[in-house]
Every structure is written in structure tokens, then in C-alpha cells.
Amino acid sequence: MTMTDTVARPPADMREVIDQGRTALGIELGSTRIKAVLTGPDHAAIAVGSHDWENQFVDRTWTYSLEAVWSGLQACFAALAADVKQRYGTELRTTGALGVSAMMHGYLAFDADGELLTPFRTWRNTNTGEAAEQLSELFGYNIPHRWSIAHLYQAVLNGEEHLGRLAHLTTLAGYVHWKLTGRQVLGTGDASGMFPIDIATGGYDTRMLGQFDDLVAGRGLPLKLADLLPAVLPAGEPAGTLTEAGARLLDPSGVLQPGVAMCPPEGDAGTGMVATNSVARRTGNISAGTSIFAMIVLDGELSRVHPEIDLVTTPAGDLVAMVHCNNGASELNSWAGLFAEFAAALGVERDSSTIFETLFRSALDGAADGGGLMAFNYLSGEPITRLHEGRPMFLREPGSSLNLATFMRTQLYSALATLRIGMDVLQKAESVRLDRMFAHGGLFKTEGVAQRLLAAAIDTPVSVGNLAAEGGAWGIAVLAAFHRTRTPGQSLDDFLNTSVFAGAQLDTVDPDPADVAGFDAFMRRYVAALPVQQAAVEHS
Fold it and tell me: Are residues 315 and 217 in the same domain?
């Protein structure tokens, strides 16, 4: 099944399918794009819409305004509705099911009247180190900087005034879902990035809830933590319906009608697992965009706590090891923009896809070990390497050869380096086994380049394909369809294998021994050079 092909080749009866609501709609708020995907009865995408947006760095905090959230959602939905109208000559009045996904973690705090108490603090902020360290020690469980509970406790440590009025804490997906349905709930996967989940019960870990309440007693919080957090729902459970007010928030034109069944809101990690059919044990996926992260569904618990590894869940509630790196392809994008500007100055105009493909393909001819060149892609802090801020850097050893091929290989290596550090913990320290690893995201659009280098970085076969062609927005549409169409008792894994991905084609690349040895050599120099990155933060 190829989703993009289906969009380009509408069946004759698709207008009737849309009018009758035999569709599912998924909307995902990513770091740089809000995207909507409408799927038909076979789960293939039949229409898409999108809206570009960017976070803002305000008062040393990465944030998006709530005004930008709603203007972006409305623009995205309008683009989707226009695509439906253009392709099928009908209005998008309803859909069979709807789901919302977004970037995980962060801090959205509201008072009892539903008013935002502080600007939205996104996952990208790394100013919660003191809180994360103390909570990890208290719980005996790794609490990363970006988790919602770390943001909350850091606010407690800072003595922030708004805590006395705090009534509700949620994620971006949870916030949008709340406004669309009136229900304060989260899917299990998204909830697991706010506070640890007890795999046995599917809810928040009650021991840790009690420990947190004891820790903050008398320090300004008016409610118990369990009363502040959204309710947890596994994939497939009903999560409310689109209200009249919610329909107008999405579609101010008044065409979209209320009453649409909604699935639990999920985080982008969970929708990435669904979109790559990676919810079964010993499967995994790597997503590379603004950030880069790997999700590995575990056979069992890890032997001990590792600060490099987050433990979250699939949307169905299975334990997942997550290696999350704050910095992904953004610095590569900046270099591509510089080369495009230089080409334009020479009078050579090329579209961005041609620029990227030319640069990426050159990397295949670069020195396997980076040839004495080194790069750090740290636009923001990187917890895996204990850096609270970042400074993008490029440096080289005297006598090294500065050529385009090795320069680009070094930049691609840099985008994968922190991921490798985390994967070493799983593969070497914990002996985690993988049956398959799937890669998706913008880094892999140029066929056979980043895929080959990633295979070398983790010394594991890496597959790409059309499974995630429409990304997390398609993943949450599939979860919406799962809620609406699954058979009684059917698992998410079975639904994906029998109803969604049957017959899907993959292209798999095995690690090349020379590339593996070269990446290993690069990593030794990368780790040795980390103090240079630290010094740049301290002195600039």
C-alpha cells in the first residue's frame, strides 16, 4: 500500500465515502508543520492539508503561542477541506473518527477557569536539570529534562507564583483534544511522557505519585498530582466526541459538523510507532526531523536505570525504550540553505530537494571516519551528552582535507552521533535484541544515504519504505480508525498487521563493515571533542 499513490489516484466512489463519513481524520502538530490526513476505508490517505509553523525562543524559553496553535490548526484543516473539494467535488462535513497528536512532553498549565498560567514550555527546553536529577533519584526511574513532571517540579523548586492556581496540567495533544471534546484525557503513550506509567495497570505509577506528593507537600501546589494530570486511555478506547464549539475551533466556516467520535490523543512518538508498524515487541523505529529519536519495544524491563534511556509506552501500553536526542536535522538544513544561497549567487537556481539530494549523495564518497573533520549539531541543549545549551560547531584537525564529500558525511554523522550513544546503552549494556528497525523522517528522503549511514551507526539492518509516507498525522488517523472499526478484543498489533500493513514493501540496507568501522572511529573523536562543545557554551 502506498499512501501517496492513493492520494494521486482517487477512486470513483470516494465522494460517497466522504459524504457518508466512512473515513478517519488524523491531525498532528509537529515541530515545524501541522498536518492533517484523511483516510478511506482501506486506511490509505485520500486527502491532505498542512500548515508550516515555528517555535519561538522568548525569554530563553522555547514556546508556541496558543494563538499560533489555533490559527495553525484552522489553516491546516482549511487546506485539507480544500484538497477534498478539489479532488472529489464535495465538502468535508464529517468523518467517521478523528484523532489529534502532537509533540510530547512539555508544560501546559491551566487554572480552574481554563486560562493558561505560563507560556507553553515545549520539550525542547532543558532548564529542568535540577528537577530531573532529583526526581530520577527519588523514583529510581529516569526522568528526562523534557518530561512534564520535570517541568512541574522545576517550577516548584523555583517557587513560581502560578503554582497556587494550578488546576490542570497537560500536553499539546491533550490541550487540543480537551478544547475539541471537553475531556481532559491522554493516550497511554503521550501520558507516559508526562509521568511514569505502571505497565501492569496501564495508569500512572501510584507509588511514584505518592512520593511526589510527599516531596512537594507544603510547597505551593493546591492539588494532589493525580488530580492535576489527565486521565489515561489505551488505544481503541472512546475519548469523547467533537463538540459544536470544537468543530468551530477547527473549522470557523461552519461546514464541519459536531458529533465525530474521537480516539485518545497521542504523542508523536506513539504515532510514529503506529505509522511504521513498530508496536510489537522487539521492533523499533527511528524518526529523524528537528529532533531524532529511536523507539524500541522491549521484551521486559531493563536491568537498571540509564540516564540516556527514557521508558515510555506504545499507545497500547507496552514498555518502550526511547533514545531521544534534542538535535536532529536542523543544522543540516542550515548548511543546505547556505549552499543553495551560494548557488543562487552564481546564477544557478535549484529547488531545495535537488540541493539536498546533491549534498547527501556526495557524502557517500566521503572518508568513512570523517577524515579529521568534526561537527556538532547542537542548536539547543542535549541531555544525552549532559549539555544544557548548544552551539552548532564545525572544526577540523590541521592537515585534514576539507572537501564537500567528507564535510557532508561528517554533518550526517553528527546528526546520528547522540543517537548512537543511547543505542549503545541498549545494544551493548542491556543486550536488547531487535527483529527489525524502521527509519522515517526528512533525513531519509534521499534514497540510500542516511539509511546506509544509520545502519553503520547502530550496526543493524535498517528498513525504509512507504509505511510512514504521511507520517504521524497518518498514524493518528490509523488510531482513530482502530477505535472505530476494530473487532472486539482485537489488539493494535493485530489490527496493523491484518488491516493496515498487509503486503507493505520495505527496502532494507545491511551495515557495511567499512562504514561501521569508520563510524566507530568518528565516535571516538566525537566523544573526545565534547569538552570543546562545553567550552563554546561557557564562553559564547
Answer: no
Residue 399 contacts residue 372 (beta carbons within 8 Å): yes
Distances (CA, A) of 219 to 132, 139, 159, 288: 18, 19, 8, 40
Q: Grid coordinates representing 385?
A: 551528552
Pairing of strands 393-396, 436-440: unpaired
Contact present, 130 and 154 (Cβ < 8 Å): yes
Looking at residue 470, its pLDDT comes to 79
Residues found in the chain: 540
Looking at the structure, do residues 129 and 224 belong to the same domain, yes or no?
Answer: yes
Considering the domain architecture, whether residues 400 and 279 belong to the same structural domain is answered as: no
More confident call, 116 vs 301: 116
- Cell 527546553, located at residue: 125
CB-based burial label for 338 (10 Å; 0-12, 13-18, 19+): exposed
> pTM of the full predicted structure?
0.84
Domain limits for position 525: 330-417+513-538
Q: Are residues 502 and 437 in the same domain?
A: yes
Alpha-carbon distance of 472 to 293, in angstroms, equals: 14
Residues 6+ apart with CB under 8 A from 25: 36, 37, 38, 39, 80, 95, 97, 98, 99, 260, 477, 480
Distance CA 253, CA 198 (A): 43
Quick one: 127 and 212 in the same domain? yes
Residue 509, all three cell numbers:
540496507
Alpha helices in 267-376 (DSSP H): 268-275, 330-345, 352-363
Q: Strand pairing partners for 295?
A: 285, 322
**Average pLDDT of the chain, as a whole number:** 94
pLDDT of residue 369: 97
Helix (H, G, I), strand (E, B) or coil at 310: strand
Longest dimension (CA), the chain: 68
Contact 501, 277 (CB under 8 A): yes
Contact 140, 211 (CB under 8 A): no
Q: Which residues contact 465 (CB under 8 A, 6 or more apart)?
A: 438, 504, 505, 506, 507
